[in-house]
Predict the 3D structure of the following.
Amino acid sequence: MIDERTEILINRKLDGELTEEDTLELNKLLIRNPDARALLEDCTTLDEQTSEVIEAVCCEQAERPSAAEVSTWSVRPFQRWYSLSLIGAVAAAIAFGILLSKNTANLVGQSPQQSLGTNSRLVTNAGMPADTNDPRGNEAVADAAAPQPGGLTPIARIPLDGPRHQTESLDRDVFGVWDQQSRSLYILEANKPPTSVESVKFNY
Amino acid sequence: MKPVELEVEYDPHQPVVEAIQAGDAHAMAELMQAQGRWVRGVVFGVLGRVAEVDDVCQKVWIKVWRECRQLTDSSRWKPWLYQIARRAAIDELRANRRRRRLGTPSADAIALADLLPASDLSGPDRQAGLKEEHQALLAAIAALPPLYREPLVLKHVEGWSYAEIGEVLGLPRDTVETRLVRARRLLRGALAERA
């Protein structure tokens, strides 16, 4: 009968891990116990065969790549992803630029009313008196009743909230877009090429 | 003043790893030559199959080349390399789980027959007997749980001490010893059953 301590000492002997005390203890066990001697012999044989098998598996002379072949591994996934993301970013920027230019052309070329949302009102300053401090009070923007001498017809009357009066003198033909939601008035220059359109924002 | 002797642990492979991090392909080939055996041992220890060891090792070295800069402390290159090899072998296990047939000693027997050198001291009958014995042992090793197979393979591949195996596997020395004892016990039992 082999106890665990004997088995451990035999394993340490096979692995070269015996201390001096372990060696003395194992020698005494081997002298007294024939089963221990048989186990040591079996384990030694098994260990040799195990080494042969594992050696055959691990020391197979697979073709090792040369330094030149190793350098071909340098197409790293990081570089590949970086290139793809860069191309994607450039393509997105180009697409955005095209979309933006189309929208700008649409804003200039279309009738102003067509580009407005439901919360917006169109006003024009063509033929407007310079002083908008109108005695009519809050209705300080051009009346929509009659066409003005400038050719551009005001489309809507814009009531202003609160006692605000704004005087602005412009020497260009412009039209304004009122955004009800943000309560902002956008002044756009009319009948000009897209590159010279200027948007001016007034917060009321 | 009395001179003091300092013990400095010098790892000859650390400069090689640092050269690889700098992009030296020759250093990479040198590391593969020097460390290829035990990397194969780790892969076989996890996989338990001979036929797939080559492919997995190839993936390991490619990954080492590509991710070497992620190793911040070059002195810890051995555990880092072990983790790469172990993970690659586990990935292969998972990928092949469905395709692998249960208990396929035939595939491994063919692979082993190609690997073992012919004995020049024995006739054809004894040679066949030797190979058959090794096939049985290989099957028994493959049947071991990876928990026991890994330290056993590392022990036989490189002859490392319990402490060195523990450093790579991230285990205490006593645990390595215990697992080796149990691995040999299981092998003896498996071979006794076959006999």
